[in-house]
From TrEMBL:
Name the record gives this protein: Anthocyanidin 3-O-glucosyltransferase
Similarity comment: Belongs to the UDP-glycosyltransferase family.
Keyword annotations: Transferase
GO molecular function: UDP-glycosyltransferase activity
Coiled-coil region: none
Pfam family name, one: UDPGT
The species this protein was found in: Salix viminalis
Length: 322
């Protein structure tokens, strides 16, 4: 076993296991070794609520399940109950299998404590190989739209064309990080025509770009890292929901720190409308202000004496006490 080899090589006994929460098998490994398991939840935390609700449902409804054709549950209760969980359609308890909701005497949730710690970021690169930062230095404050869709998501060619046309017509300065594999999707002649007010690069140092004083708005696919970095720098977002719908809803509807593209896909009209709303309209003023408010909350929480600092101290104490 790899862990046995690690202990033999280091001479240290493994007393705690900290892993990505998606590596769920690590919980079983920790249980077999009789050591604590600390799963790290990387995505935006609202999705963690699905797991928290799962435990609530199990605790509340488990003994109501029956599978013998009778009208009462294991505990004698009426099984004609429904689960009213925010975001889900109404579920009937009797329709769920026994494996979904084990008896109430089953093992309780493994997560006895949930603490919030800002994800560590990579140290800023000292290189500007694509010239992004030097180009931004020549732009006016709060004037540039930054566009990036991460390293995984692939945008349909039709949407890239619509977005490019909107950027060209708007005249708004823009910096677009577009992978080489997708650059062929740009309209013919776009790079030449837009070169007067825009820059397209295969990669951009996103953390430094979002922190630059010239950035006014971030057009994003709403990946977790992009959301964190945008909020930490107080940059409002224009969200395309083709990849991560719930994150886009969180940004636009709950945090009110951005807007969703009409119809959920890039169209020339939709992009122009969103840019105008965020940068020119009164509603956009509120969105920009809200993004700054969230930035202040993040920095306050991560400062000495803040919530995140206290939670990190709690984490260290839990690890060192095992």
């Amino acid at each position: 076993m790899a862990m046995d080899m690690a202990e033999a090589e280091t001479g240290q006994k493994i007393s705690c296991l900290m892993t990505d929460a998606f590596l769920s098998f690590a919980g079983s490994i920790a249980e077999n070794l009789s050591i604590p398991w600390i799963p790290v939840w990387g995505p935006v935390p609202h999705s963690l609520s699905a797991h928290i609700y799962t435990d609530m449902i199990r605790q509340r409804y488990a003994n109501s399940l029956i599978h013998d054709g009778s009208n009462s549950g294991r505990d004698g209760t009426d099984v004609d109950q429904t689960l009213d969980v925010p975001g889900l359609s109404v579920l009937h308890v009797a329709d769920l299998s026994a494996e979904v909701l084990p008896p109430r005497d089953a093992k309780e949730t493994l997560f006895s404590c949930i603490i919030s710690i800002p994800p560590p970021s990579l140290p800023p690169s000292t290189e500007d190989v694509t010239g992004c930062l030097s180009w931004l230095d020549g732009q006016k404050a709060k004037s540039v739209a930054f566009i990036s869709f991460g390293t995984v998501v692939n945008i349909p060619q039709s949407e890239i064309e619509e977005l490019a046309e909107a950027l060209e017509v708007s005249g708004i300065p823009f910096l677009w990080a577009l992978r080489d594999s997708m650059s062929d999707c740009l309209p013919s002649g776009f790079l030449d025509r837009a070169s007067t007010h825009g820059k397209v690069v295969p990669w951009a140092p996103q953390i430094q770009v979002l922190a630059h004083s010239s950035i006014s708005v971030f057009i994003t696919h709403c990946g977790a890292n992009s959301v964190y970095e945008s909020i930490a720098n107080g940059v409002p977002m224009i969200c395309n929901i083709f990849a991560i719908i719930v994150n886009a809803r969180l940004i636009a509807d709950e945090w009110r720190a951005g807007v969703r593209i009409d119809g959920g896909i890039f169209t020339k009209t939709g992009v122009l409308k969103s840019l105008d709303l965020i940068l020119e309209r009164e509603q956009g003023r509120g969105i920009r202000s809200r993004a700054q408010d969230l930035k202040e909350l993040v920095w306050k929480a991560s400062a000495p004496g803040g919530r995140a600092s206290a939670d990190f101290k709690t984490l260290v104490e839990k690890i060192t006490s095992v």
